[in-house]
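Session log. Operator J.P. requested a structure for one protein chain; no other inputs attached. Running the standard single-chain path with token output.
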Amino acid sequence: MRTFTRAAVAAPALGLAALVAMAGPAAAAEGSTQADLAPSPVNNVDGSGHAMVEISGTTLSFTLAAQGLLQDAPHAAHIHFGADARNECPSESDNNAEALQGETNPDQHFTTVEGAPAYGPVVVSLTKTGDTSPDSTLAVDRFAVGAEFEYSRGDVQVSEDVASAILDGKAVVVVHGVDHDGDGTYSPGERGVSDLDPSLPGEATDPALCGVLNASQMGAMPQGGVETGAGSTSGIENAGLIGVGAIAVAGGGVLLARRRSTTDN
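Structure written below.
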């Protein structure tokens, strides 16, 4: 009499699959944050704004809106974060009132560098087109233009550290551009040249609005009309001098083989 039995010969593979299932997939950063933007200290800006950021893994999407800024002028905007920073918007006490090149009355001007201990360096440039890395910190021809604007952008790639910092409430949005002397343009005036790039007037890079990104209860980006386009450099003296400153575990089936054994009784 002959009998046949079938056995799975892939026990090691089954064991590995079980271990993978128990471990589960790597945790991915998911969520949204938002910030209400208020005037930065000292610089006498009568404006406001709002930012919302969604994170999915290491992909970032954002909406940025602002009002009360300088008409017909570009406004650079960034997400800041620093491991050694206070992860907050600066206060008036951060103004060291140290005169910069060509600057008079330094106590009346608050610069981006003075705010750095509070919010840290640029980690994402909120440009409308092109690169979004810190290399585009001063690419003012690719930021929004005007006294009032709103625009959205998606598929921005960031590091895991930056994604985690944003979801942990440690990132800060800063919008730049201040008309200190009220002449309707970015000009050196009493402010002098920028502490970030001496080829730019300081008014173009001084912080205007600031807000910390905190956890949001909203499940999706706001819907509605948004401004599009590559922006403009109008409103800046000597605009020709402006330049760019600065993500499965593969699934595998278990191979089963049949082994036939014959036993004679």
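Operator note: Confidence is low (pLDDT under 50) at residues 1-26, 218-265.
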